[in-house]
Write a structure and sequence with these properties.
Elements lengths: L1 H11 L7 E5 L4 H13 L2 E8 L5 H17 L3 E5 L2 H8 L3 H20 L3 E3 L4 H14 L12 E2 L2 E2 L7 H10 L16 H16 L3 H30 E5 L2 E5 H5 L4 H9 L6 H10 L7 E3 L3 E6 L2 E6 L8 E3 L5 E2 L5 E7 L12 E5 L7 E5 L5 E2 L8 E2 H7 L4 H5 L2 E5 L2 E5 L3 E2 L11 E7 L1
Parallel strand pairs: 1-2, 1-4, 2-3, 4-6
Antiparallel strand pairs: 5-6, 7-8, 8-11, 9-10, 10-11, 12-16, 13-14, 14-22, 15-22, 16-19, 17-18, 19-20, 20-21
Length: about 450
């Protein structure tokens, strides 16, 4: 196994014997085997562990186990504790996605701060199959079906040559101790459903399924390479660079492309325009100048025979105005908005993702903006005013979490910290006759 590891690392030039590695270790069998292999192969590494606080005392025991493992190998140990459920709720993402975002952001912070050459994780061939089906279920293009790469920037996956069965056999042979994650058996998580339900069914249909899937992924990578070259050739004709971060797309050339949706999606992917926005842009080609479309980072403006793509101004400088006729917005956050009479049959929502506001206390247009230093509000259920900065400290918000917060205001008065807390001054009372209901999508 050590020889196979070395051959795989050398063949793909994942790292060298001079590199200092930061190894992500959960304490499970995969990462424990990875540590043992790297140790036997003589690589220099440190150990990094994330406690996601998802399994009570089990999570703390995992952390203690990995700490002892680092001590066994005589390696530096880095660890961090996350409020993963809170993070997922705050940003409206799955627990799995929240854990992934937190993990890789922290790994990169540690790598940069301590000058590690590579971040090493323990994904293997079975993970590759799970990722294929996960992306397929979510909906993806060719690139999403090409699987995990052995090296992505500073992140490397040196175990992609091995199956889970081979990893289990090595752990048994070396009598390695590792932690069993009880959540791996719970099929509430998407990846676990694929692991325990879909992959065994596929193997029942075809015992050689896993080998066949690896071949399919290899073919898709080749297809993606050919496809990318075609897209690059089109970019040469269609894209005109005006300045750093600003490009023009020549509409007459765009109209000649077939299929236009595929080409335009790939051209605009670096600027974070999603498929729905791209489709709407295609329907708008030939319409009046001045039409605008937004991604999370850029704006597209139709101007006669060109589409101008440029980076938006810093988001903190941007205000969005919601007038009385507005029934919802998709950017910068997705909100569904409705007005209705207050009746005894109306149930008041307790979800922070829903704001039920007394309409007689507001004046349109409402303003959606980023929070600013000096902002204050009266948190629902409290009698006094509180600075937002103090509220964030009390709620233990990290800097990235604070930077993502949007607020809805009535003039300069805060109505709602979007998705987090309503202002008590705008709540529904027995005297309320009309309500404005805002739901975070």
């Amino acid at each position: 196994m050590v020889e196979r590891l070395n051959r795989y690392i050398e063949s793909l030039r994942l790292f060298t014997s001079d590199d200092i590695l930061l190894v992500g270790v959960s304490g499970g069998i995969d990462s424990v085997v990875l540590l043992e292999l790297l140790h036997l192969a003589g690589y220099a590494f440190s150990v990094a562990h994330c406690n996601f606080n998802l399994r009570g005392t089990e999570s703390d025991q995992d952390e203690a186990f990995v700490k002892a493992l680092a001590r066994k190998y005589g390696k530096p140990f880095f660890h961090i504790s996350f409020d993963t459920r809170g993070f997922a709720s705050l940003y409206g993402i799955s627990i799995e996605m929240a854990a992934r975002e937190q993990r890789y952001t922290w790994f990169e912070d540690i790598r940069h701060l301590h000058h590690f050459d590579k971040i090493v994780v323990a994904h293997h061939l079975d993970d590759q199959a799970e990722t294929f089906f996960l992306n397929l279920a979510r909906g993806t293009g060719i690139s999403g079906l090409t699987g995990m790469k052995a090296i992505t920037g500073k992140l490397v996956r040196p175990l992609l040559f091995a199956t889970r069965k081979e990893i289990e056999n090595f752990a048994s042979e070396k009598k390695l101790e590792y932690r069993e994650d009880s959540s791996n058996q719970i099929t509430d998580f998407q990846r676990n459903k694929i692991r325990h339900l879909i992959l065994p069914l596929m193997e029942e249909l075809n015992p050689s399924f896993r080998d066949g899937l690896q071949g399919t992924i290899a073919h898709l990578r080749d297809t993606w390479s050919v496809y990318s070259q075609a897209v690059d050739a089109v970019k040469e004709r269609v894209v005109r660079r005006k300045s750093a971060g600003e490009i023009e797309l020549f509409v007459p050339e765009l109209k000649m492309l077939n299929p236009l949706s595929a080409y335009l999606f790939e051209i605009l992917k670096p600027y974070h325009f999603n498929g729905d926005v791209v489709d709407e842009m295609i329907r708008s080609i030939g319409s009046q100048s001045g039409k605008q479309f937004y991604s999370s980072t850029h704006r597209a403006v139709f101007d006669r025979d060109v589409i101008l793509i440029h980076k938006q101004k810093e988001i903190s400088d941007t205000r969005y105005y919601l007038d009385e006729s507005c029934s919802g917005i998709d950017f910068p956050v997705k909100l569904n908005i409705a007005a209705q009479d207050r009746t005894d049959s109306v149930k008041l929502s307790k979800s922070p993702k829903t704001a039920m506001v007394d309409m007689d206390k507001i004046q349109f247009p409402l303003i959606l903006r980023k929070w600013q230093k000096g902002d204050f509000f009266q948190p629902l259920g409290m009698s006094g005013l509180k600075k937002l900065s103090d509220f964030f400290v009390d709620e233990k918000f990290s800097l990235p979490e604070k930077e993502k917060v949007w607020i809805l205001t009535n003039g300069e008065e805060i109505i709602w910290i979007v998705g987090i807390r309503l202002d008590d001054r705008y709540k529904i009372t027995p005297e309320t006759t009309r309500m404005l209901i805002l739901e975070l999508g």
